[in-house]
UniProtKB/TrEMBL annotation:
Annotated Pfam families: LHD_TRPY1 (PF23190), YVC1_C (PF23317)
Chain segments carrying region Disordered: 1-37, 645-680
Source superkingdom: Eukaryota
Comp. bias intervals (Low complexity): 670-680
Coiled coil region boundaries: none
Signal peptide: none
Acidic residues composition-biased segments: 15-24
Keywords in alphabetical order: Membrane, Transmembrane, Transmembrane helix
Location of the YVC1 N-terminal linker helical domain: 70-257
Name of the featured protein: Calcium channel YVC1
C-alpha cells in the first residue's frame, strides 16, 4: 500500500501559516455531508492475491512493496543487523545509531509507502510473542523488537519532517490509523492458514489492523510519545481527523458507508452530525455523563433501602437502576468486543468496570431467585452495596486519567492481583494440611468441631497480624507438626511474601515514575484509540441500546443495507438531537473564535517594534537566502561534523546513501520549502 501525492486543495481564508502545526487548524473546504475533507492523498493498493514481480525484489526509487513482502523484508534485515542482546539505550548510542539504525532507516524509508511503520510494529509484535521453542533467544528477540520500534519512530519522524502542514497531518493519520491487511498479496498457502472465524462483512476492509493498535498491544511507548504520533493522536482525540475504525465484532453493524481517513470541517457538516458521537473527546464526556447517571441511580436505590426500608420505594428506584445499569453493562461489553480485551485492558479503569459487572451479575442472579421464591430483597441489595467503593473510585479515575498516581495504581494492581493469586494458591496447602491433621490426630473436640473456614480465618489473622489464636491452638492439631506448620506459614506469609510484594510494587512504581511523560502519552493514546467506535450500538445511550438490539438487529435481516442505514441514522439523530445540536453549535463557534484570534495575531505582526525582542524574531522568521546557506556550508560542512561526532566508523554499503548527506539534503529541502512558503 502506498501514497500518491497530488496538489492539495486551495487554502481557505480560515487557514494561515501559523496553523500548520495546530491539528485543530488543519482544516480545508470540501468534502461530503459529514464535513469530511476529500483526502489529499490517494492510497494505492496492490490487488489481493496477486504478486508483483518488482515488489518481491529490491524496490526501485519510488516503488511500493506489498505489506506481506515488506514484513518479511524487515524481518530479514533486523535479524541480520542484530545478533546479540542490546538495550534500547545501547541501540540509541552514537556508534550503533551510525552503523545500524541510520543505514536501515535510509534503506527502508520510502515517501510513497504508508505501510512501512505498520510493518515495523507488526514485526515488533512478532518478536515479542513468547514462544517456548525460542526461550533461549528471548533476550535477542526483545532486542530486535526494540530495534523495530526505534526504526518505526525514526521513519515516522522523517515522514513528519518531509511532509509538514495539513497534508502532512493527513499522511501521518493514514500511516497510523489506516487499516492494513498483513496477508496482502500473500500466497494462497499462507492465506489458507488464517483463522477461519466468522468475519463480518465491511466492504473489503475485513481482517485489517492499524499501526496504532499494534503499537498499543506491543506497548511501543517510545513510538507513541514521538511528536509525530502525538500530533495524530491529538487530532483524532479532538475530532480533526475522522475515519471509520476497524473492529473485531459489532453488536449492531452498520457499514453501508465507509469513511476513509480525512480532515473534518465543521462549517460544511450537517448540524446534526451523528458521527461526532464517536469523537474521543466528546465520547469521553458522554460516557462520563452516563456513569454519573448510573452512580446517582445507584445511590438512590441503596440509600432508600438503607434508611426507609420501604420496599415499594426500593422497587421504583431499583427498577430504573436495573434498566439503566443493564444498558451500561451492554455498552461496556460491546467496548471489550470492539477492540478485544488485550487493548481494553490497557484502559485505566478497565479492572474497576469488570469488578462492577461481576458484582452486578451476582446481584441480578440473587435478585432473580428472590423474585421467584420470595418478595423480599434481603440478600440481593446488600450484595449491591459492595459496589460503592468501585463506583466512587471509578469516578476519580475517569476525572483524572492523566494522573501518574492512577497510572501507577493500574500497573501495580496487575502485579498485586497476579502475586496474590499465586500466594493464595500456595497457601491453600497449609489449610488442607491442618484440616487433615485435625481429623486424623487432633486432640479432644478439635477433630470434630474444626472446619476449613475456621482454619482459614486463623491463618488470615496470622497473615495480617490481627490475632494469635491459630498459634495458641497449633499444638491441638499435632504436638510437633501443628506448631511447625503454623510457624512456617507465619514466616512465609509475613516475611517472604510481603517482602516480595513490596519489592515488586516498588520496582513497578519506580519504572513508571522514571518514564512519566511516556506513560501519560501512552494512556492518552489508548483512550483515544478506544474512543473511536465503529459499532452503531454506541450511538444509543443506555437504556436505548437495549431497545436498539431488540428492534434494529432483527430489522437488519429484513431490509436492505441502504434502508437500514437510513433508519439507523434517523433514530440516532432523533434520540441524540439535543447533544448533537450542542456539539454542532460549539464546534462552529470554536472555529469562529479561532479565526478571530488568528486575525488579531496577524495584525500584531505588522508592528514588531512593539516587542522588545522584535528584531530577534525578524531574524529567525525566515531562512537565510541560498547564497548565505552556501557560504555557511563552505565554512562548516555538516556531514563532516556528524562524522567527527560519531568517531571512526565502518562505511555503509555502496548501495546506501550517506546518512549525513541524506539528512543534509532533507534539511536543505525543508529549508527551501520553508522559504517558498514564507515568500508566498
Amino acid at each position: 500500500m502506498g501514497v500518491e501525492l497530488r496538489d492539495p486543495s486551495p487554502r481557505s481564508s480560515f487557514d494561515d501559516d501559523d496553523d500548520a502545526d495546530d491539528p485543530e487548524a488543519a482544516l480545508n473546504p470540501g468534502g461530503d455531508d459529514d464535513g469530511t475533507v476529500a483526502p489529499i492523498f490517494r492510497l494505492r493498493r496492490l490487488p489481493q492475491g496477486r504478486h508483483d514481480a518488482q515488489s518481491a525484489s529490491s524496490p526501485a526509487e519510488g516503488s511500493v512493496m506489498s505489506v506481506y513482502v515488506m514484513m518479511h523484508r524487515i524481518r530479514r534485515l533486523v535479524m541480520a543487523a542484530i545478533d546479540d542482546t542490546y538495550t534500547l539505550d545501547e541501540l540509541r548510542a552514537p556508534h550503533m545509531d551510525h552503523q545500524v539504525v541510520r543505514p536501515l532507516v535510509d534503506r527502508l524509508y520510502n515517501p510513497r509507502d504508508a505501510a512501512i511503520v505498520y510493518c515495523l510494529v507488526a514485526n515488533r509484535v512478532q518478536f515479542l510473542r513468547p514462544r517456548s521453542r525460542e526461550a533461549l533467544h528471548q533476550g535477542l528477540n526483545e532486542s530486535r523488537a526494540a530495534l523495530c520500534e526505534l526504526l518505526a519512530t525514526r521513519i515516522l519522524r522523517r515522514f513528519h519532517e518531509d511532509h509538514p502542514g495539513r497534508s502532512g497531518l493527513l499522511l501521518l493519520a493514514n500511516i497510523l490509523v489506516s487499516g492494513f491487511d498483513p496477508c496482502d498479496t500473500a500466497p494462497e498457502s499462507v492465506r489458507s492458514r488464517r483463522p477461519q472465524w466468522a468475519i463480518q462483512e465491511r466492504g473489503g476492509h475485513e481482517r485489517k489492523l492499524t499501526a496504532l493498535e499494534l503499537a498499543i498491544i506491543s506497548e511501543s511507548k517510545m513510538l507513541i510519545k514521538s511528536p509525530a504520533c502525538q500530533l495524530v493522536v491529538d487530532a483524532v482525540y479532538k475530532g480533526v481527523v475522522v475515519y471509520t475504525p476497524m473492529s473485531f465484532v459489532d453488536f449492531l453493524p452498520d457499514h453501508y458507508k465507509y469513511h476513509p481517513v480525512s480532515l473534518y470541517e465543521p462549517r460544511r457538516a450537517a448540524i446534526l452530525n451523528h458521527r461526532r458521537l464517536i469523537v474521543p473527546q466528546l465520547r469521553n464526556l458522554i460516557e462520563l455523563m452516563h456513569f454519573i447517571i448510573l452512580l446517582l441511580l445507584y445511590m438512590l436505590t441503596v440509600a432508600h433501602y438503607g434508611f426507609g426500608n420501604d420496599l415499594d420505594g426500593v422497587r421504583i428506584y431499583e427498577t430504573v437502576f436495573n434498566i439503566f445499569a443493564a444498558g451500561w453493562v451492554l455498552e461496556q461489553f460491546a467496548a471489550v468486543v470492539e477492540h478485544g480485551w488485550e487493548v481494553h485492558a490497557q484502559n485505566l479503569w478497565s479492572f474497576l468496570d469488570v469488578t462492577f459487572v461481576v458484582i452486578y451479575a451476582a446481584y441480578a442472579l440473587v435478585r432473580a431467585i428472590e423474585l421467584l421464591f420470595t418478595n423480599d430483597a434481603y440478600f440481593a441489595l446488600p450484595i449491591l452495596c459492595t459496589a460503592a467503593p468501585v463506583l466512587l473510585t471509578r469516578i476519580a479515575f475517569t476525572l483524572m486519567p492523566d494522573n501518574i498516581v492512577f497510572i501507577a495504581l493500574h500497573a501495580m494492581m496487575r502485579d498485586f492481583t497476579r502475586l496474590t493469586f499465586i500466594a493464595l494458591w500456595c497457601f491453600a496447602g497449609f489449610v488442607m494440611a491442618l484440616l487433615f491433621l485435625a481429623r486424623t490426630s487432633g486432640e479432644g473436640s478439635l477433630n470434630v468441631g474444626v472446619t476449613w473456614a475456621t482454619i482459614t480465618k486463623w491463618l488470615l489473622w496470622i497473615w495480617f497480624g490481627l490475632d494469635g489464636t491459630g498459634i495458641e491452638r497449633a499444638a491441638d492439631f499435632h504436638l510437633l507438626l501443628g506448631p511447625m506448620l503454623i510457624i512456617t506459614f507465619a514466616f512465609l506469609g509475613n516475611t517472604l511474601f510481603l517482602t516480595i510484594l513490596v519489592a515488586i510494587l516498588t520496582n513497578t512504581f519506580s519504572k513508571i515514575i522514571s518514564n512519566e511523560a511516556a506513560e501519560i502519552q501512552f494512556r492518552r493514546a489508548v483512550l483515544t484509540f478506544q474512543g473511536v467506535k465503529s459499532d452503531a450500538i454506541f450511538s444509543y445511550p443506555p437504556p436505548f441500546n437495549i431497545a436498539a438490539m431488540m428492534i434494529l438487529l432483527p430489522l437488519k435481516f429484513l431490509v436492505g443495507p441502504l434502508v437500514f442505514h437510513q433508519i439507523n441514522v434517523a433514530i440516532i439523530r432523533v434520540i441524540n438531537a439535543p447533544i448533537l445540536l450542542l456539539i454542532g453549535l460549539w464546534e462552529r463557534r470554536r472555529v469562529w473564535a479561532r479565526r478571530s484570534k488568528s486575525s488579531r495575531l496577524r495584525s500584531w505582526r505588522f508592528f514588531p517594534g512593539l516587542s522588545p525582542h522584535g528584531d530577534i524574531q525578524v531574524v529567525f522568521s525566515a531562512e537565510p537566502p541560498p547564497e548565505v546557506m552556501d557560504a555557511l556550508e563552505q565554512m562548516d560542512a555538516l556531514h563532516e561534523v556528524a562524522i567527527r561526532d560519531h568517531g571512526p566508523t565502518v562505511p555503509p554499503p555502496k548501495d546506501l546513501p550517506s546518512p549525513a548527506s541524506s539528512s543534509v539534503r532533507r534539511r536543505r529541502t525543508s529549508n527551501s520549502s520553508s522559504i517558498r512558503r514564507f515568500e508566498a
